[in-house]
Amino acid sequence: MAIPTILTLLKSRSNPLRSIPPSLHTFTPSKSMSQSTAIPRKQVRVRDHGYDNYMEVQKKTRRVLKFQSLILPHHNQTIPASRLDGLARRLGFKQYEAGAFILKFPHIFEVYEHPVQRILFCRLTRKALLQIREEKEALLAQIPDAVVRLRKLLMMSGTRRLRLEHVRVARSEFGLPDDFEYSVVRKHPEYFRLVDAKETRNKYIEIVERDPKLAVCAIERVREMEYRTRGLDAEDSRFSFLIDFPPGFKIGKYYRIAVWKWQRVPYWSPYEDISGYDLRSIEAQKRMEKRAVATIHELVSLTVEKKITLERIAHFRMAMNLPKRLKEFLLQHQGIFYISTRGNQGKLHTVFLREAYKRGELLEPNDLYLARRKLGDLVLMSPRKARVDRELVSYRRDGDEDDIERVGRVYAENEFRGERSDVFDGEKEGGDLITDLSSDDDDGDYTDGEGDDPEDACATE
């Protein structure tokens, strides 16, 4: 009687799928599959310094935007230097840190002595004000493109609707103005409608009619271009993605075979309705996994700068049927996406679309992207090259008084309506999204690709 009992225990232990809940196999292949048939789930992240250096500049840019938000609402867009330190502490800055910070960027902030009161004041330079005006003009000029992006975003949702608050948090990434609820949604009733409008947090944006002409993914256009220019095999490129692994990424023999097989797996389009399909089979699970990759790929492609934080992608997880552990899921495809933890002390994870960048620059830049990059250029200018000459000191006498007043007046009106800048959104979100992100360490599992075994770097957990 003891022998059958032991055999039963051995059989139950030999099958690891019996002790794992079915919900864990929704999008990713099981651990029992060999490396030659499935991409490993657990992988070591390889750091790409080009993207990380880009995020270090963005870290300084976000802090500069915070100080600009403190100066612009005041009269004549000037603020006493003594008040600046107190206001900056409300934003998380340390005591006496504000004065040292603005002196690091003389091309953006100017400290001068008031001719009558004889106290120090702080204001923005002409270059910074022109950059703000140029970015605002570029934002208003591309509103028609933003309408198309919002329509495509709603078409990817399973219910054809998204929460207004979730779109508001990510409005900067998708090129939407601060008042997009009025300037985009309400001004285009032929495309959008607002439902459940009793409370602000319960508002939903719903698409009126689905347009088949917009149901074309960015990766499909890339495949067509690659097929026409390089003459690739139609069977191999029909469902493939452009893959460019980071420098130093170790690619083993079995991993290369797994990627080749994964590239040939068919999948449903992110714009396709899959409610009528049976998703319980293994083949359907593989298609759903690849469909999730295509959905995130299309989501990042719709952004202005082809990058978005992982925390903001998590806002659309339920609506677009994405997996729970997004961070771990995207690390399986480091040749398509890159996750950077730089720029905010590891609190935010920025997802880049690798095929859209080359040497830290966007391959197809737009006016809004170029206007935002000008602020980064001002941040990178060396303070040693800054000269406090007559052009910077007396710029108010050169006929730019009206432009400066207009920038400040528009900013003050937005503040009065409660439309705050999105420079604070990234720090407030993420508290209720812990289950959507991987719990592994932000910096501890990075590697530069040197000294690692090729098989260990791609081993399953």
From TrEMBL:
Transmembrane stretches, start-end: none
Pfam families associated with the record: PORR
Biased composition (Basic and acidic residues): 420-431
Bias type Acidic residues, positions: 438-461
Domain PORR: 46-383
A GO molecular-function annotation: RNA binding
Stretches the record annotates as Disordered: 420-461
Protein known as: PORR domain-containing protein
